Hints:
- Chain A is 18% helix and 32% strand.
- Chain A has helices at 5-8, 15-21, 50-59, 136-140, and strands at 30-36, 42-48, 63-66, 71-74, 83-90, 96-103, 118-121, 125-128.
- At the A-B interface, helix 2, strand 1, strand 2, strand 5 and strand 6 of A face helix 2, strand 1, strand 2, strand 5 and strand 6 of B.
Amino acid sequence: MGRDLVERLPERPDFAGLLDALAYDADGLVTVVAQDAANGEVLMVAHANREALELSAATGQMHYYSRSRKKLWRKGEESGHTQRLLSLHFDCDGDAVVAQVEQVAGACHLGYRSCFAYRWDPAGGYVQAGRKVFDPQTKYGRA
Amino acid sequence: MGRDLVERLPERPDFAGLLDALAYDADGLVTVVAQDAANGEVLMVAHANREALELSAATGQMHYYSRSRKKLWRKGEESGHTQRLLSLHFDCDGDAVVAQVEQVAGACHLGYRSCFAYRWDPAGGYVQAGRKVFDPQTKYGRA
């Protein structure tokens, strides 16, 4: 099996052929980057197993696999903040995926549009830079 | 130690304080998403340990930790396709970082601007969608 995804892909892969060629880790997971299709903002980084990718493609709603809870979940199943899948983009070694999505409200359980709400740069240092889009206490009953 | 990064951050964190608060995995790593600061394109997903983040911040050039080679590396040290760091964005649980970068030539060792060159969507299926920006044979001596 080649190191690069293209070496493992059939000539005209269908979705199952693509999933066959991925480089899952020891737990059967790949890394997923959810990106806002409207403006390119990275919303969250999570993981998916083959079943989560299959369900995402079949339903058009992003599914992930939680490493801490050891279970499959549909994004927004609790909060209603679902992600509609527009396209998947696989990387050269086949262990990571960018999902272009339409995000309802916000991706972060703390109420931010993106989970990447904590910014640092060489000139300005640290700043809390997240855009709050909902009140997490009304959605999840926690601060 | 709280589950959320903000619960572990000091009130006005410097860079060391930020790095102290991250949720490194068992190998001391966090996931890094390198994003083209000019157009938001996700260029690659890799990993960094604390030292790689420190070196990235200190030199302004992205450094990573290779899980397969078990060593620190500077992006572009072989190819010249370096990444200048503009800002880092940490996520809510502190185990992933988005790095906004200026990418020289292309991020992918296969000659593409982005490693995420293999696209699938529900309507169109699979298409090789990468933008070739250099000839990998002249850069790395491989096809």
